[in-house]
Specification:
The chain has 362 residues and is α/β, with parallel strands linked by helices. It has eleven helices and 18 strands.
């Protein structure tokens, strides 16, 4: 029968998120009920609260989570009660034109649970990124659950569900960083530091972290940055070139998503270099770039959707690397908090005091 649980809900634009009781239905065909053990407080949740993504209020916040399968609906054959899973927000369909081309990481028809979760009065909730995991129990599509090694702590493993995967994938999948490459990452928050960790995993020998906050630059060095640049104090483009014999780097990664940062990343590349945009812009941000420069510098400009990841391939592999001590997932967890402290976590996020606040739910 349906379950009543507390959850973090954003009711209106720019209004504080509140903890309210919601109703979660039993899983139907193709759906899974998950007992959420931990969920990160992601900047995307703040965007939902503040209306930067849409206006389908009320929103059920949270999407960066791990937990245990409680129940499965009909037609679910590869998951069972007790499986430890990381939730993902791009469940590929297998039928769209991208999936049929063998590129499911670009699936154009990703799907979520069909049944809605609701407030007590029956108001339908819009789950953040189709998940809604800042609650002890959530309902998702079976394809949004990826089984991984249950020995990994949920507080760290769940972060692969969004920001950490986006950053690592931006470097490894989208940017195709390889042995001996040089990389510059603009913005050293959670996604940027994950891109630094991904570049290190991929064998880059020069990894440059760029930010205006010295605390974030210290974090970048913890994740393997070989050099850091405070772009409030030095011109980022000149500084990158000075570290690369005047040429620029092979791959730049914009983990901020602002036009002025994008321009820096564009010109900090070597000729024929790659620029990866993984930071999410807001709808009102325009970009003005000389078309001749786009042509004459060559290379590639590549947006990165979710790090171009395939959860069934990437999540177990990254958890294995974590268990081997090669991927420092625990470093992303600045603090663990309760469900009542999400608004406080938003404030600490905006002040740059945390990489990730993680809500412990079970």
């Amino acid at each position: 029968m349906p379950t009543e649980v507390p959850a973090v809900v954003a009711r209106a634009k720019n209004a504080p998120a509140t903890v309210e009781t919601i109703i979660v239905p039993d899983p139907g065909p193709g759906e899974v009920l998950v007992a959420v053990q931990a969920c990160g407080v992601c900047h995307t949740d703040l965007h939902y609260r503040d209306g930067a993504i849409g206006d389908d209020y009320p929103y059920l916040l949270g999407h960066e989570a791990a937990g245990v399968v409680e129940a499965v609906g009909d037609d679910v054959h590869d998951l069972a009660r007790g499986d430890f899973v990381i939730l993902n927000w791009r469940a590929w369909c297998g039928r769209c034109r991208s999936c049929r081309r063998g590129r499911p990481w670009y699936c154009f028809a990703t799907h979520n649970a069909r049944q809605p979760m609701t407030l007590l009065d029956g108001t339908t909730l819009t789950p953040a990124l189709g998940i809604g995991a800042l609650t002890p129990t959530t309902l998702v599509a079976a394809g949004q659950c990826t089984k991984v090694d249950p020995h990994a702590p949920a507080t760290s493993a769940g972060l692969l569900g969004c920001g950490v995967m986006a950053g690592i994938g931006a470097a490894v999948n989208t940017g195709a960083v390889g042995y001996g490459d040089s990389v510059a990452v603009f913005g050293c928050g959670g996604v940027g530091d994950a891109a630094i960790a991904g570049a290190v995993l991929a064998g880059a020998t020069t990894v440059i972290g760029i930010d205006i906050d010295e605390r974030k630059l210290r974090w970048a060095r913890q994740f393997g940055a070989t050099h850091t640049i405070n772009s409030r104090e030095r011109d980022a483009i000149d500084a990158v070139r000075a570290l690369t014999d005047g040429h620029g780097v092979n791959v730049t990664i914009d983990a901020v998503g602002r036009p002025e940062v994008f321009m820096q990343a564009f010109y900090a590349r070597d000729y024929a270099g790659t620029l990866v945009l993984v930071g999410v812009p807001t709808p009102a941000m325009p970009l003005s770039l000389p078309l001749l420069d786009v042509f004459s510098r060559g290379g590639a400009i590549k947006p990165s959707w979710y790090g171009d990841c395939l959860p069934s391939r990437d999540f177990p592999m990254l958890i294995s690397l974590y268990r081997q001590g090669r991927l420092p997932l625990d470093l992303f967890v600045t603090e663990t908090i309760g469900i009542d402290d999400v608004e406080g976590a938003f404030g600490r996020m905006q002040r740059g005091e945390v990489l990730r606040s993680v809500v412990v739910l079970g």
